[in-house]
Amino acid sequence: MSELDRRRAWQVAAAVPDPEIPVVTVADLGILRDVRIENGVAVAQVTPTYIGCPATLAIELAVEAALRDAGFEARVERVMSPPWTTDWITEEGREKLRAYGIAPPVQGGNSTRALFGETAAPCPRCGSDDTERVSEFGSTPCKALYRCRACKEPFDYFKCL
């Protein structure tokens, strides 16, 4: 198979939506690490957002199914090292999260301040920095629930990992 096939396989895999946040793709989140053609098989490498992510298997199966639906023999490899970080979310992915009403994580997600919850999360609706964390857990374990004091709206904040 050619480089053209590899690029097509990448595009197919990259378009798979996240099952928990369908406005972003696995490429937007940065969890699609690589797609290569190996002995005629499209091999997609995927890194889970965290070890216990309940969507990991669903994502891997969706990537494999998308590649097969596009005519490829396919296999997905789970890659654990280096571990995923929210810094891998693309700028386009961050904008998609914001437009969907989820505050994207701050850059430098592996900083001590971000890891211990000292993160200011700007409101994705009005842009105000006058927000407060209501709960460490939002609609999924990877998000925290915040409230904007300016517009009074609640919103999820995608935690830094």
Can you put this structure into words, describing what you see?
- This protein has 161 residues and is of the alpha/beta class.
- It has two domains: 3-78, GMP Synthetase, Chain A, domain 3 (2-Layer Sandwich), CATH 3.30.300.130; 90-158, no CATH class.
- The chain has helices spanning 3-14, 26-29, 56-69, 91-100, 112-115, and strands at residues 32-38, 41-46, 73-78, 102-103, 131-135, 143-148, 154-158.
- Strand 5 (131-135) and strand 6 (143-148) form a beta hairpin.
- Helix 1 (3-14) packs across helix 3.
N-to-C series of helices and strands = HHEEHEHEHEEE
Question: Taking Cα atoms only, what radius of gyration do you get, to the nearest Å?
Answer: 17 Å
Please give the order of strands in the largest beta sheet.
4-7-6-5
* Number of individual domains: 2
**What fold name stands as the CATH topology of the largest domain?**
GMP Synthetase, Chain A, domain 3
CATH architecture of the largest domain: 2-Layer Sandwich
How many helices? The count is 5
Total count of strands: 7
In CATH terms, the superfamily of the largest domain is Fe-S cluster assembly (FSCA)
The span between the termini is 37 Å
Helix coverage percent? 25-40%
Fraction of residues in β-strands: 15-25%
Mean pLDDT: 90
Sum up the overall morphology in one term. elongated
Largest sheet: 4 strands, mixed
